[in-house]
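Summary of Year 1 activities. Much of the first year was spent building the evaluation harness for sequence design. The harness presents a backbone, in tokenized form, and records the residue chosen at every position. We chose the following record to illustrate the format because it has been used consistently in internal testing since the harness was completed.
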């Protein structure tokens, strides 16, 4: 997808979810091969699927409304969730003697994904029951659509409480309140209609592991980053032998690279935007110093961009990034393109 950089574009249109059964049936047998082609995932292991199977069965019997809240560490997560819902869930249901029929889920996705990943995804997401949302503002139409699907939809609704992937297996981003709010709305709507279903939020964890750690590719990447950043080749410590020595060396290289890049970025914002940075507190250990410098740099960089768009700093770093992202979309995709 390409845009004329000198002209504003029309406002982003809402993409109506339009679940199409034949596309779901077509993709189920194709998804394992597609996952192998598009990702580095070699094996998928699921646990406690019986909990999902029982809740899914209760929903189909009209006893519950089900909201699936999944951890979102990677862009690969949709492939993993499709495997869970389309492969392992029906398999586990059969083992438990439960008849579930078609197993699927509606889902909420970032409206910007088709802009950078391919416009064809708009059609695919729509026909799989996806609800697009613009994350940096109060997207009332998307929320209303998601609320309706959670209340009356044939399938559960799947949402990432983190709001986006963070690239970390061990660190959870601050949870956004949208999932809890949807559940409260659903409970209110059920009560208003004198319906007896309960509302269940099912947390789903996703974690990735290397079958074989890619140490050699990682070493090549570090060497390339050092060269691209203008760092001299790392002087190897000949006494660092064995696995522990190699790990210590890699950590030292990462630290050196991080410190160098921080210094370059501080210099950039100092020279071009007149930003002042305090000297590091040398009484702190090096890791804490580095963390504080990084936090300060992020705050200063966000302030520069917020000043450009006329925004006040509000919320945590992720909140501020989302608001800036939305400000950029609003500047490009205009309600008044003329």
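For this record, the design step produced the sequence shown next.
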């Amino acid at each position: 997808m390409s845009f004329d950089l000198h002209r504003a574009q029309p406002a982003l249109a809402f993409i109506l979810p339009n679940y199409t059964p034949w596309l779901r049936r077509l993709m189920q047998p194709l998804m394992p091969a597609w996952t192998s082609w598009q990702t580095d995932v070699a094996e998928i292991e699921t646990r406690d699927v019986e909990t999902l199977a029982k809740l899914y069965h209760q929903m189909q019997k009209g006893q519950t409304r089900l909201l699936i809240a999944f951890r979102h560490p990677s862009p690969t997560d949709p492939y993993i969730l499709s495997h869970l819902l389309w492969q392992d869930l029906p398999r586990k249901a059969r083992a438990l003697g439960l008849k579930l029929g078609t197993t699927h889920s509606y889902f909420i996705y970032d409206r910007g994904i088709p802009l950078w990943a391919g416009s064809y995804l708009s059609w695919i997401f729509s026909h799989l029951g996806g609800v697009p949302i613009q994350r940096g503002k109060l997207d009332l139409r998307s929320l209303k659509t998601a609320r309706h699907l959670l209340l009356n939809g044939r399938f559960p609704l799947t949402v990432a409480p983190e709001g986006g992937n963070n690239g970390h297996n061990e660190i959870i981003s601050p949870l956004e309140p949208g999932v809890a709010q949807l559940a409260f709305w659903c409970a209110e709507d059920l009560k208003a209609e004198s319906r007896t279903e309960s509302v269940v939020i099912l947390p789903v964890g996703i974690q990735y592991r290397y079958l074989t750690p890619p140490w050699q590719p990682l070493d090549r990447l570090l060497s390339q980053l050092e060269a691209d950043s203008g760092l001299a080749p790392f002087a190897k410590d000949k006494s660092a032998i064995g696995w522990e020595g190699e790990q210590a060396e890699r950590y030292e290289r990462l630290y050196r690279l991080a410190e160098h890049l921080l210094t370059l970025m501080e210099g950039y914002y100092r020279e071009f935007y007149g930003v002042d940075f305090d000297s590091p507190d040398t009484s702190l250990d090096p890791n804490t110093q580095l963390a504080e410098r990084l936090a300060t740099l992020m705050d200063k960089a966000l302030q520069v961009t917020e000043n450009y768009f006329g925004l006040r700093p509000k919320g945590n770093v992720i909140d501020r990034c989302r608001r800036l992202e939305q400000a950029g979309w609003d500047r490009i995709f205009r309600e008044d393109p003329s």
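Residues 242-273 form the longest helix (32 residues). Quantitative recovery figures across the full test set are reported in Table 2.
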